[in-house]
Amino acid sequence: MTKVKLHKALQPSFIKRMYYMRFIGKFIKAEKEKNGENFFVQCLSPMPFPLQEQLKDEPYVFEGLCSNKKNEKIFSELKKRKLEKQLVMFRLYYERGHIYAELICTEEPREIANGYKMIPVPKVSNYKKGESLERKLNNGYLSFLMPKYPKDFEPPELLWHDGRLYGNISLKSSTISSIAYFEQQRECKYIDVNDWVKYVEIAVEDQLYFVSNQVYEQLKKRMNEEGKHVEIEELKVQKDEWEWDEREAVFLQYVKSFVRNKGLYLDETDIYNFHISAKTNMLTILGGIPGAGKSRFVQAYAEALGLQYGEELVWIPISPSYQEPHDLLGYLHPNGTFIESETKLVRALMKAKENQNQLYIIVFDEMNMSHIEHWFTPFLSVLQLEKQNRILNLYEGVQEKENPIPPSIEIGENIIFVGTINFDETTKELSDRLLDRTNLITLQKIPFCEMCMEQEKVVLQPPLKVTAGEFRINWIRNKTMIEVFSGEELELLDKLHAVLSSHDASKGISFRCANAIASYLQNIPYQNNHSYMISREEGFDLQIKQRILTKIRGTEMMVGSLLSEEVKRGATLVPLLQSSLANRVSTFEHSIAYIREKRRELELYGYAK
């Protein structure tokens, strides 16, 4: 027997996957070596493609080194028994151009068969009934994971899950993950198997089963004769537990009327969109053309909350001269006194710290008049931290005299940061670092001809005086990201990430971004008739536009193919958002319109911004 030497190196990604693969075989012989006793095992289970290409001849025999401590321990125990009667499970590892076997466990079977097949167990989410394996098999475009069966093997013909054996399948590996698969022909059959254990030779953590070739063929024959077609009733859309907060619904109706009384004509979706973003994010940015009503809307929203301009509503016009945090906050004078900036932002933060149940809104007006990264950096870092760690450092050093302003201030949950920006030639671009941390909401102008259809002014009651506890606790749901998203939504996010990162490795959908989208979706308010104020479909569409597509910009060479609607140009966004998978999630009216707007910019100016 000789060592298994490969003709060419293996890819690092495959080497990592190979370590988690499982094989079964039988002992061939043991040999005495200078460094100890080694052994050889013949593999009786399927071999992954990269090894098949280099190991031309069967049977596949691998050497095991007893210098490997795991091998030494198991092999020393086995020598007391008859090696030729032992069925062994092992893994393969790569070292200096050679492949070696590492023992995992052994079984003494009824008899050792000539070969074995693998039957993997798909992993599906336990959170939602709609994400059952059978639904994924029937949909065809929803993938499921098989952790112990990577794409390096032939696609399996049988699957085992929860008391059922599935067959008549045609699985294709996903481009998103090496362990993700989806069903192509959608004519899956199943049989119920109550005595599954009697068919299995070795089980791997209830995620993979080895059966003999003979048993495998028997199961396939039984599937053809007895198999029933998987049929799924159309699943009703699962809604979150209905949690209607009357105060929040009344508040939003009040905001709509109040905004109208102020002479602002806004789409009500924009009002709800801003409200959801403000309560689930520390920072929300409103954008649009000059004169769209961004500043007036923020003032009206603050007044509806019962906040007073100059007191709880702090307005900070951003100057083009702002170049560093000192321009916004202030600086420490050499004499030990902290000189506050003319913005008075520090005083506002101190007041908010003292009155933690009082809401405050701090507005950075026209914040892209200067490079935001230059003067806003301390906030970008702090706002994403947990509440107890959200501390803004103002200055360092030992105070020589008593200073009314402390060296650091805690930024509480009672502060809402809002930025307004214009899209014109006088302003600066927003960085990806900023866009990954905020919703960029563009207010939509309603047609002038529709203004006459709006309701007449109504007499308003006094503001509701919403507290910080209501806004950031009572009106908030905090489920985990996996609990919020459906299978289709997660699949679509994965595919969007793949498309974006294939064009630019620095783009894509981060975990922070996905968590923020989940927070937005679960916090869409209800109306008193049990319906959402923004449908989940539109909410998901808005989040794709406001959280992900805003980072797409550049020249034709940089983003041209990404914004194209021609499928032949490669991975593009519009065909993906019009696919059958996407149609199960949303129509993506907002996102597709935004992409086409970007494409138009590219054609007109040679640059999409």
UniProtKB/TrEMBL annotation:
Residues 285-437 form the ATPase dynein-related AAA domain. GO terms for molecular function: ATP binding; ATP hydrolysis activity. Pfam families: AAA_5. SUPFAM superfamilies: P-loop containing nucleoside triphosphate hydrolases (SSF52540). It comes from the Bacteria. This is ATPase dynein-related AAA domain-containing protein. It comes from Bacillus anthracis (anthrax bacterium).
